[in-house]
Inverse folding.
């Protein structure tokens, strides 16, 4: 029996998916979470074989949950399910060890098969998302630029970003300006929105 954790902030979707997966003879849903933080806690408690995670959830997003589960529940394979797939999100998912990445348009029967696939250690990526990722290419941002944009996205002042990252304010401004130029944005915060939309943050 393959044990599964479902994490999605939309209760109706989560409940319907749990009911449909219950029809499968070899799959049982052992826990359901409405937030990323709850998903981590429940995974540590129930030790599921597979975690099916919504990409966007309150608190921790699905990719952050998957990254944490690599350490906290290393036997658990992660599948990301998203209604708004971005190439950058797929690239990040692969970098944190996610084995499945699919659209929310997937049928319950197909998702059950994907769960079986990742449970055996194999990967399944939605072909359309994979094609989009190839077309979009890699993020143009350096790791430092992405880090600083994540602060800018939250509205953190340059002086505080400098303090948190042990950089000078001038260096922070230079990095944010470089990121904005690469993305064709007016400023760091606008660049952060673009980068988030592409899945690069």
């Amino acid at each position: 029996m393959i044990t599964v954790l479902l994490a999605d902030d939309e209760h109706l979707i989560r409940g319907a998916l749990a009911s449909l997966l219950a029809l499968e003879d070899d799959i049982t849903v052992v826990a359901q979470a409405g937030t990323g933080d709850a998903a981590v806690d429940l995974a540590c408690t129930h030790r599921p074989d597979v975690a099916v995670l919504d990409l966007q959830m309150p608190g921790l997003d699905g990719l952050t949950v998957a990254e944490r589960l690599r350490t906290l529940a290393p036997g658990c394979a992660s599948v990301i399910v998203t209604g708004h797939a971005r190439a950058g999100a797929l690239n990040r998912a692969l970098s944190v060890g996610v084995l499945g990445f699919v659209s929310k348009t997937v049928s319950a029967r197909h998702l059950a098969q994907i769960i079986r696939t990742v449970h055996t250690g194999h990967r399944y990526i939605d072909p359309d998302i994979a094609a989009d990722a190839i077309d979009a290419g890699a993020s143009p941002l350096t790791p430092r630029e992405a880090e600083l944009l994540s602060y800018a996205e939250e509205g953190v002042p340059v002086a505080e970003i400098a303090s948190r990252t042990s950089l000078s304010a001038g260096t922070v401004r230079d990095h944010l300006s470089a990121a904005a130029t690469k993305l064709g944005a007016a400023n760091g915060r606008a660049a952060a929105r673009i980068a988030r939309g592409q899945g690069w943050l």
Notes: Strands lie at 2-7, 27-33, 50-54, 77-82, 100-103, 124-125.
